[in-house]
């Protein structure tokens, strides 16, 4: 068997570590974005902003700013996909995995599945942004030209 360009080897430890890393990136940067947004309107920080589906809404200023933090976080996580996943065809998989675990966390935190339409709209929009931008960035680096050394040849 000849070697294949970018052959894929099943490595469950790598995949699990990438999932954990992307979850850490998701919650770390979401916390930073929410802290930045909270500093604009001087509101108290709490886990409700991350896990409570009732906080995300169009009616209040805090709800709209929280939605903005979630959307900015999807852009940050797209950069995480670029730096740590590095494969365009895996971006959608990791994006859905991150948001699936976030939904499970919200479900456990609220003791029920999120019922607000605004929560679902924000998370679907964030999934789309994170996947599309992450895949675009990864594909752009994957399709970069491979430099060929055209320097002087040595005399043999």
Automatic annotation (TrEMBL):
<keyword id="KW-0813">Transport</keyword>
<comment type="function">
    <text>Involved in protein trafficking. May serve as a receptor for ARFRP1.</text>
</comment>
<keyword id="KW-0333">Golgi apparatus</keyword>
<protein>
    <recommendedName>
        <fullName>Protein SYS1 homolog</fullName>
    </recommendedName>
</protein>
<dbReference type="GO" id="GO:0000139">
    <property type="term" value="C:Golgi membrane"/>
</dbReference>
<dbReference type="InterPro" id="IPR016973">
    <property type="entry name" value="Integral_membrane_SYS1"/>
</dbReference>
<feature type="transmembrane region" description="Helical">
    <location>
        <begin position="65"/>
        <end position="85"/>
    </location>
</feature>
<comment type="subunit">
    <text>Interacts with ARFRP1.</text>
</comment>
<feature type="transmembrane region" description="Helical">
    <location>
        <begin position="117"/>
        <end position="138"/>
    </location>
</feature>
<dbReference type="GO" id="GO:0034067">
    <property type="term" value="P:protein localization to Golgi apparatus"/>
</dbReference>
<keyword id="KW-0812">Transmembrane</keyword>
<feature type="transmembrane region" description="Helical">
    <location>
        <begin position="12"/>
        <end position="36"/>
    </location>
</feature>
<keyword id="KW-0653">Protein transport</keyword>
<keyword id="KW-1133">Transmembrane helix</keyword>
<dbReference type="GO" id="GO:0005802">
    <property type="term" value="C:trans-Golgi network"/>
</dbReference>
<dbReference type="GO" id="GO:0043001">
    <property type="term" value="P:Golgi to plasma membrane protein transport"/>
</dbReference>
<dbReference type="Pfam" id="PF09801">
    <property type="entry name" value="SYS1"/>
</dbReference>
<feature type="transmembrane region" description="Helical">
    <location>
        <begin position="92"/>
        <end position="111"/>
    </location>
</feature>
<comment type="similarity">
    <text>Belongs to the SYS1 family.</text>
</comment>
<dbReference type="InterPro" id="IPR019185">
    <property type="entry name" value="Integral_membrane_SYS1-rel"/>
</dbReference>
<keyword id="KW-0472">Membrane</keyword>
<dbReference type="GO" id="GO:0005829">
    <property type="term" value="C:cytosol"/>
</dbReference>
<dbReference type="GO" id="GO:0006895">
    <property type="term" value="P:Golgi to endosome transport"/>
</dbReference>
């Amino acid at each position: 068997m000849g070697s294949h360009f970018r052959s894929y080897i099943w490595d469950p430890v790598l995949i699990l570590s990438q999932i954990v890393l992307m979850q850490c990136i998701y919650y770390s940067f979401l916390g930073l974005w929410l802290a930045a947004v909270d500093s604009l309107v001087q509101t108290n920080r709490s886990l409700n902003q991350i896990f409570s589906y009732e906080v995300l809404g169009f009616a209040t200023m805090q709800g709209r700013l929280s939605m903005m933090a979630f959307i900015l976080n999807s852009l940050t996580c797209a950069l995480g996909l670029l730096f740590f996943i590095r494969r365009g065809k895996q971006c959608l998989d990791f994006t859905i995995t991150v948001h699936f675990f976030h939904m499970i966390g919200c479900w456990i935190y609220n003791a029920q599945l999120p019922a607000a339409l605004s929560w679902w709209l924000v998370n679907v929009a964030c999934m789309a942004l994170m996947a599309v931008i992450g895949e675009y960035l990864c594909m752009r680096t994957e399709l970069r030209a491979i430099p060929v050394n055209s320097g002087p040849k040595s005399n043999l």
